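Blinded run. Sample ID left blank on purpose so nobody reads anything into the name before looking at the predicted structure. Input follows.
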Amino acid sequence: MHCYSGDYDIQLFDKKVVGEYHLEDLRLGDLVAIVDADHSYGRVYMTGAVSVGV
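Blinded prediction complete.
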């Protein structure tokens, strides 16, 4: 396999960030883009990368 398969925990404890990105409306099955995260060979912080999940 060439990509990570599994879960990615999105924590909603920062009320400012939750409001800024409207995360209070996030639901199971939503399309999500995570910036600065590369999963080509595991989980890695990489400026400019975008990981997409459901």
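Unblinding after everyone has recorded impressions. The mean pLDDT is 84.
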